[in-house]
Every structure is written in C-alpha cells, then in structure tokens.
Backbone:
C-alpha cells in the first residue's frame, strides 16, 4: 500500500488522500522517515508539502509542484483563504446541532506533543461544528468540523474540551474506542493563484 491516493494532478499542484497512520512529513530519527511526502516524491520528485495532517488523521493534502507555487499556496494558508472541512465521529451527543468552539491553545511542553487549553498564554483557536447524525445505541455523533485557525491538534483538543473526544484518539480520548482516529479531512477549497479560479476537492471517509 502506497499510503496515499491521487485525487488531482495538474502542472501546478497535486491533491492526495493520506492514509491514517502515515506521517505527512519526516519526523526526527531514522524510524520516522517513512512519510507521505517521501512516498509522493518517489513518483513526483518535485512535490513540496504545503500543509500537514496529524499522523492519525486521514484525508486531503495539497502539494505544490514548484517552489514558486509552494510560496503562493503557502500564502493562501497564512491569509486563511483555504477552506477546510473534516468529518469526525465523537463520543456522546453534542450540546447543540451546530456551534462554535473558541478556546486558546498552547503546547503542553511536559507532555508534548499534547496540546492544552490555556486562557492566559494560549493562541486564539476557533472551530465550527455541525452534528450530522446521532446514534443513541452507541452514543456516538457524526460531526462536520470547520477549523478557522490551524493550531496543532486543534480539532482533537477542542472536541475533548467540549466533553466529546474523537473516537480512537490516543492522546485526548480513548484509543480503544475505535480501530483508528475517526477524523478525516474531507474538503479542501482555495482560489487558484494567478487566476483566482475556485478549486474544490472532496474525499469521503472510510468510516
């Protein structure tokens, strides 16, 4: 298994679907060199990662095919012109069918890579959620998540802080609640640098 599925290819960029359990980029140490970008570069040597997903998260990732396009696409992320949506399955029934989570986040250094809510020095972090379905037998909710900011582990910490951890989360929930982290980057939208033409990509989660 190559660990990714090619969703889109053109002269400027690639969109791939990353498998859960695969690093987006290499980590520290020889045991953390197997990652999505290296696997993609085996086929597209020029590919450059524009953003990342947690190792446990599956879904859509954008890669540039030149340094110039990498700079332009990175600017879109910095300027929050990239729309991202995720699908997750969480414990319990959410307090409302839709809502907003505003909780400042910062790295929990003694327990890194964990992040934590910190109202004194945490960075502003905002997530919108929409409950798609609730299973009363399993007491699980299927939700759509739209992060406005892009903090590390933002969705996972926000849902945990709300009292509804994502199933299969080994850092902020109960790993045994699912075979994997039930979080998938399902939509990616952005204006094409140069023309401004809207780009929209979708991926259906396996769960």
Residues:
């Amino acid at each position: 298994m190559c660990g990714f599925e090619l969703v889109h290819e053109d002269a400027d960029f690639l969109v791939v679907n990353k498998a859960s359990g695969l690093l987006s980029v290499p980590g520290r140490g020889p045991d953390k060199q197997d990652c999505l970008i290296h696997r993609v570069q085996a086929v597209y040597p020029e590919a450059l990662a524009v953003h990342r997903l947690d190792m446990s998260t599956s879904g859509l990732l954008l890669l540039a095919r030149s340094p110039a396009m990498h700079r332009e696409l990175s600017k879109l992320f910095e300027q929050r012109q990239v729309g991202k949506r995720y699908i997750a399955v969480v414990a319990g029934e959410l307090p409302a069918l839709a809502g907003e989570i505003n909780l400042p986040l910062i790295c929990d250094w003694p327990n890194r890579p964990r992040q934590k809510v910190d109202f004194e020095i945490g960075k502003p972090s905002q997530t919108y959620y929409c409950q798609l379905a609730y299973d009363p037998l399993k007491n699980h909710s299927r939700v759509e998540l739209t992060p406005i900011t892009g903090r590390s582990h933002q969705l996972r910490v926000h849902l945990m802080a709300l009292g509804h951890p994502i199933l299969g989360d080994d850092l902020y929930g109960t790993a045994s609640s699912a075979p994997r982290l039930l979080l998938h980057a399902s939509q990616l939208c952005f204006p094409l640098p140069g023309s401004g033409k809207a780009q929209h990509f979708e991926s259906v989660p396996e769960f």
